[in-house]
Amino acid sequence: MEIIRKHIEYITIIFIFQFIVFNVTSAQEIDFYRQLSDSALILTKQHVVYDPGYFSIDYPNGDVPEGKGVCTDVIIRAYRMFGIDLQKEVHEDMKAHFELYPNNWGLSKPDKNIDHRRVPNLMVFFRRHGQELPVTRDAQDYLPGDIVCWNLGGGITHIGFVVNQQSADDKRPLIVHNIGGGQVLADCLFDYEIIGHYRYKK
C-alpha cells in the first residue's frame, strides 16, 4: 500500500508540474502574439509608399529602403522587432528544401533579396514551421498576432496581420496590411478570399 501511495503522489506531482508548465507556456504564447499585434500597429505610424520593386539588400537582417514596402514587408518588419529575421529563416529553409517552395518565378535557386517578400513562399514557410490554422468565416477564430493570406484574383496574393482592435460594429478584428496605400489599419478580414491562416513563433 505504501508503494501505491507513493506512486500516486508521484503521478500527482508530475500532473501538477505539467499543468503549471502548460499554463505558463500558454500565457507566454498569448503575450508574444499580443506584442506582435502591437508591433504591427506601430508600423502604421510609419510613412511607407507601396513599392513592389526588386531591391538588392543586406543579408541577414536586410530590409528594403526605408519608406518603401509591400504587404510582406509588414510581416517581416513586425517580426524583426522581436529579433526574428524572416529573410534568413526563409532563405535557409529554401536552400535546404527548394523543391517544396513554389516555382512561380522561374528560379533555379533561392534569392535572398526577394524570396521572403513573396506571399506564396511565406505561406509554405509558415505551414512548415508555424501553426496552420483553419480558414473559416467566423471572426472569433482570428486572434491578435495571426497571419492571414488572401487571393485577390488574377494570380495576386496578399498577406496581413490580425491585431487587437475591433471593427466599428465590434464584429471583426482589424487587419494591419499594405495593399497599396502604405502600412494601414483596416476592416478587411473577409473582403477577399482567405487562402491561409497561420501563427508563427520561432
Work out the strand percent: 15-25%
Number of strands: 8
- Envelope shape: globular
Instruction: List the strand order in the largest sheet.
Output: 3-8-4-5-6-7
Count of domains: 1
Task: Tell me what the CATH architecture is.
Answer: Alpha-Beta Complex
**SSE succession:** HEEHHHEEEEEE
CATH class: Alpha Beta
Alpha carbon gyration radius: 20 Å
Please give the alpha-carbon distance between the first and last residues: 47 Å
CATH superfamily: endopeptidase domain like (from Nostoc punctiforme)
- Number of helical stretches of at least 4 residues: 4
Protein structure class: alpha+beta
Low-confidence stretches: 9-25
CATH topology: endopeptidase fold (from Nostoc punctiforme)
Q: Tell me the helix content.
A: 25-40%
Summed over residues and divided by their number, the pLDDT gives a mean of 90
For the sheet with most strands, the description reads: 6 strands, antiparallel
What attributes characterize this protein structure?
globular; 202 residues; alpha+beta; 37% helix; two-stranded parallel sheet
Question: How would you describe the overall organization of this protein?
Answer:
This protein is an alpha+beta fold and 202 residues long. It has a single domain (2-199), classed as endopeptidase domain like (from Nostoc punctiforme) (endopeptidase fold (from Nostoc punctiforme), Alpha-Beta Complex). 37% of the residues lie in helices and 19% in strands. The protein has four helices and eight strands. The protein has helices at residues 2-43, 71-80, 86-96, 119-129; strands at residues 49-50, 68-69, 131-132, 147-153, 156-166, 173-177, 184-186, 193-199. A six-stranded antiparallel sheet has the order 3-8-4-5-6-7. Strands 1-2 form a two-stranded parallel ribbon. Strand 5 and strand 6 (173-177) form a beta hairpin. Helix 1 (2-43) packs across helix 2 (71-80). The model is unreliable at 9-25 (pLDDT under 50).
